[in-house]
């Protein structure tokens, strides 16, 4: 009986720390164009890093008109690499880039984005 009481006490002490993470309020997002435009897309370097240094050229309007970008892999003879999907999210005030296949998420600092639903106001 003492062992059962000890087990119950331990569970009461441990269980409050075992909580599921809060559900994300993330919504699809779009980048907002800044006043300073550079020759390269602001996310080219990050996406290149995610893809192990692959040479990546993004269209000028990537992530400005749609929250999703699909990057096709190189064609090697008759075989094709699977495409990589990237999504931009607005999550509790942060602009977050997600690589869908790896489920990796990167908070973007220095870039402004808005919820995709607010497109008509920007």
- The geometry reads as globular
Radius of gyration: 21 Å
Q: Tell me the strand percentage band.
A: 25-35%
Number of strands: 8
The number of domains is 1
Structural class: alpha+beta
Amino-to-carboxy terminus distance: 67 Å
Number of helices: 2
Main pleated sheet = 6 strands, antiparallel
Helical residue percent?
10-25%
| Poorly predicted tracts of residues | 1-22
H/E element string? Answer: HEHEEEEEEE
Mean pLDDT: 77
Descriptive notes:
There is one protein chain. The protein is of the alpha+beta class and 122 residues long. It has one domain. 16% of the residues lie in helices and 29% in strands. The strands form two sheets. Strands 1, 2, 5, 6, 7 and 8 form a six-stranded antiparallel beta sheet that branches. The longest helix has 13 residues. The protein starts with a helix and ends in a 7-residue tail after the last strand.
Care to give the gist of this entry?
This protein has 122 residues and is an alpha+beta fold. The protein has helices at 2-14, 44-50, and strands at 27-31, 68-71, 75-76, 79-80, 84-91, 94-99, 104-108, 113-115.
Question: Could you list some keywords that capture this structure?
Answer:
globular; disordered N terminus; two-stranded antiparallel ribbon; alpha+beta; 29% strand
